[in-house]
Every structure is written in structure tokens, then in C-alpha cells.
Please model this.
Amino acid sequence: MSAGASQILRYLRIGWSITCLLAVVFWSAMWARSYRWSELCDIAGHIEMSSFYGSFRVNIALPPYSFLHDWYFSSNAANGWFTAPDSPAIFARESLYRFSMMPGRALTVPHWFCVLLCGVFAVIPNVGKFKTRFSLRTLLIVTTLVAAALGLTVWEVE
Model:
């Protein structure tokens, strides 16, 4: 392999990892936000995505059926869905491990699964490429990024 081709592959690997890490940040923010806000998005009347109390759901309406709206987005307070005071805590605990699938219709997964999946996809191209030693600069950058992500998560929850 020529030097130019290996450089292009290196840049593609870095770009892929950055894209996947941005997806990790997105899913982490959606996960934190889902305990306060319930979001629903209809796309072209046939795909519906929702985020609620730690779980993400995708519904598909196969023709001739469709959802109410062609293009629609709503964001409502998540606590408005519950009647009993302890219901949110019980639902959050149950949705932490809820995986469900209706064949050809709906898929529900916890947000942590999406975060984990994107994190694994970010690391896979770099397996075997890691150095066993890191510079102090690298460790400080990673520590800062982790602290910022945790801070944003706590800020969003409160």
C-alpha cells in the first residue's frame, strides 16, 4: 500500500471515529433529556421516532397505513404522562433494560444501548492501532472531554 493510500485510510478512520463519538454525545444528551421531556418525530407519515424515560422507539407504518402527520415534531414534559407520584421512578427502572420488537412494525431500545453501540463503532477501526503509552496532553484532553460530557449530562437532568 502506498504512503498516500495509507494516509487516506488514516483520515477515514479518524473521521469515522469522530462521527461515532459525536453520535455518542448526541445519544447521551437524548438519554439525559428523555427523563424530563418526551419527544416525538413523524417523518413522511410512515416513520415515527420517540424518546421517553430512557428508551428510544422507532415505529414503521407500512402502506396503506400512515401516522397522523406527514412531518411533525413535538416535545412535551415527561412527567405529565403519569398519575401516581412513584410512577416515573418505576417506569424509569423498567425502561432501563427494555428491549422490544414487533416484527416489521416497531423497535424499542434503551438509550444506553445506542450510546454503547456508537462507542463500539468508534473504537473498532482503531483496534490494534492504540499505543500503550499516552502523552500527558492526550490524557488531559480526554479527561476534559469526559468531564464536559458528564457536566452537560448533569446540567440537562437538573
In short: The mean pLDDT is 82. The first strand starts at residue 37 and ends at 43. Residues 3-157 form one domain.
